[in-house]
Amino acid sequence: MSVSAWLGLLAICCLGAMSPGPSLAMVVRHTLGGGRAKGIVCAWAHSIGIGVYALVTLLGLGVLLKQAPLVFNGIAILGALYLAYIGVQALRSKGGMSDKLSAGKATSTLTAARDGLAISLFNPKIMLFFLALFSQFVLAADNLWGQSLIVLTPLVVDGLWYTLIALLLSHRSVLPKLRANARTIDRLSGVVLILLAIRVLVTI
After folding, report:
1. Torsions phi, psi of 177, nearest 5?
2. Could you tell me which residues come within 8 angstroms of residue 26 by beta carbon, excluding any fewer than 6 positions away?
């Protein structure tokens, strides 16, 4: 995988992790309710779920590319359209996270890990996102190192981002700033996703 391709993947993964949603709400809930350690446990359990999705998606797309290239191209086109759709949705978002970013009750470490893993594994939108995203990068992963990068990049980015959230939320003054910037993050994500979708449709 070339450096430019990896940087593109890294940018999308960063924006995807930063976009406010139920995963953020879950990490926030355990951090504010159970403390910094519970938030970090929830964060990395969530990232493991992301890694599982990434691996399964990559392997499935790799098989399609070899055995049914027309089907693969069809998925790439549908993926581009889906990226454009969620990009438009992000641009239209009002960043309304006030109802979701609330402190939860204190829970055990096992519960924090369970919730973090579940919120990623049982979110069908994550699977759709990876199908759309990875269909653009699977061609660049022509060896084991490239494939490892494609799987590890979203896993590590997700874990580090939500760990940062848990650390920052140890200071309660950070939460209002996070809420205030939710709309800006959504708009930035929307622009990048739409541009990626256009690039895919032009190059197929």
Report:
1. -70, -35
2. 42, 46, 115, 116, 119
Supply 42's token pair: 């929830």
How many whole angstroms separate alpha carbon 106 and alpha carbon 6?
A: 39
131, amino acid identity: L
DSSP string computed for 112-155:
HHHHHHHHHHT-HHHHHHHHHHHTTTGGG--SHHHHHHHHHHHH
Q: Hey, what amino acid is at 58?
A: L
Give the span between the Cα atoms of 54 and 57, in whole angstroms: 5
Please answer whether residues 114 and 38 qualify as being in contact, where contact means their C-beta atoms are separated by less than 8 angstroms.
no
**Residue found under tokens 């964060």:** 43
User: What percentage of the chain has pLDDT greater than the value 70?
Assistant: 80
pTM across the whole model: 0.70
**For residues 151-171, average pLDDT:** 89
